[in-house]
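Q: For a teaching session next week I want to show students how multiple molecules come together into a single three-dimensional assembly. I've collected the sequence lines for a complex. Could you give me the predicted structure tokens for the whole thing so I can convert them for display?
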Amino acid sequence: MAVTIKQIAETCNISRGTVDRVLNNRGKVKAETEELIRSTAAKLGYKPNLAGKALAATKKNYVIGIILISEGNKFYDDVIKGIGQAEQEITDYGIRILLKTMKGYQVEKQLELLDEIKDKINFLIINPINDDRIIDKINQFSEENIKVITINTDVENSARLCHVGCDYKKSGETACGMLGLLTGGEANIGIATGSVKILGHNQRIIGFNKVCREKYPKFQVTDIIETNDDDVCAFIETQKMLQKYPAINAIYIVAAGAYGVCKAVTEAGREKDIIIISSDKTPEIIKLLREGTIKATICQQPWTQGYKTVNMAFQYLVSSVVPEKELHIVKNEIKILQNLK
Amino acid sequence: MAVTIKQIAETCNISRGTVDRVLNNRGKVKAETEELIRSTAAKLGYKPNLAGKALAATKKNYVIGIILISEGNKFYDDVIKGIGQAEQEITDYGIRILLKTMKGYQVEKQLELLDEIKDKINFLIINPINDDRIIDKINQFSEENIKVITINTDVENSARLCHVGCDYKKSGETACGMLGLLTGGEANIGIATGSVKILGHNQRIIGFNKVCREKYPKFQVTDIIETNDDDVCAFIETQKMLQKYPAINAIYIVAAGAYGVCKAVTEAGREKDIIIISSDKTPEIIKLLREGTIKATICQQPWTQGYKTVNMAFQYLVSSVVPEKELHIVKNEIKILQNLK
DNA sequence: TTGTAGGCGTTATCAT
DNA sequence: ATGATAACGCCTACAA
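A: Of course. Below is the structure for the complete assembly, covering every listed component.
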């Protein structure tokens, strides 16, 4: 049987209350008793019991607030499913979830949501815009004992507990590795990114280029276009690119806009001789994989991102467990027609 | 706040004890009170609270027994890691794990372990040999209220609660799909299976052939050899195969023996023109991927298999939760050099 | 057949 | 600064 607070109290001839005060740093304990308790706790190998903590925590009615830039972005569908699963599992512990969503990268809007949610929550999960005002807000929440975890996108130098997301660079590396295998290592490549202003997209391209350089010297990145994550824009830009560089025989789609890119390729009658690799697994991409226009797509475990993040918030609230790592990086998954699931 | 037993008792003007009896089917309750309690429980939307149950369950000192045919099989390393993680998380609930391992498919040995473990455990997780005597034993455990979950391999018509494992057929399909992408859909293929007597291996081949037939008509499966999951045997058989069928330019390794197969290929100086795809992610396979001899490997989430299974056992013991599905199938993961992790 | 009460481990409140 | 006690939700032994 594991060691309990009660046992520590008994071996020290001290009340459970005092032991609790020491072990949870609530103060108001004489230095020597504190010392005694800490040492015997260590000696006996005390580990707080989650079930007990959880039961006691039900009284507190904790709320986890979540802010996602998810509207109009199918990628987040699975993130939200993961959140939902975790939510189900932790309602037993009296913890609720308050989810706010928004559309597009407007700092003002996100600040507004933050203010709106602040006095209703005990923990914040956010998909932050990389802006100083947002960082300030995160730090402020943190100081007022609303701890923060960032999900999917991170911000530098903030007081967040940790970040849960993917390794964008590795995602790009994997895309290039896949393309290397599918082409025999020789290709003229067009890259369709979302925006050169978005860090994650750039990191993917950096990873892609790295593998090009180190492993596939005959890969030639001929052009990079921006889709602005919009299918129409993607369509137009891809058309232009294919006209300008007819030698292109492979395309790496870094972000959204896959449908537009593929439409331009098929309209040009090039779907047989251009190999396309994409990112993430939206309904459109699934369709394009089924049709054979896209050969493979690199995913980033969206469900797991949502699930894990909520679970870490739960652990913190109930057991004051601070995530052991600052970065929690999910896997890059390669999906082809046969393992789409 | 969620509904509790206490609340149901109060609204029914009945003691908590009686409500507990009804809700947990302990009998000895008048039919009409039972009816009353059940209906109000349903009306109020009662859901048992895990934290409460778990805390009460600590007194019971439950033990989960696990029997794995894992010795000398690196695949299980990650399964056991997943089990370990789950174990850590549930010790808080006073549940322990008792792991027994064995080597090779000897029915007698597994029966022996089953007898040895029986009176020490409250739940059984097993990687069963497909034999009637084992099935009988599983049914017997189940009747004596030691419920069973099968992991990685399943047995038909047994009283197991459910099975956690991979979809071997899809694994073979994915391997073929990958090979299709890497070869342009034209190849002379040699298949190196473990044993034609092992169900999972055969299912992989069935899946592989299915995609051949339906999607890659120019794929030709020229030869199938058995490695008996042994590298030396794999080496010898592969040598013979390559001599007999020099046209072979792709190999699908279904089970263990990858090192032996690859050794034969490199010794024949054919590593540049034979594309090799394997299964699972052992240290040898990682090495061969790094060297470029193997191009891709199809994995089956071993960690998740271990983790999930223990968690389901936990849920059953603490909350009598019977798995909602009879089959819990993990994903087939494609790993190449860049996303090995 | 039903009710009562104490305990699982932790925490919060009130009293000392 | 410390102790005592009740409570979280559930289970169980015992009493009625």
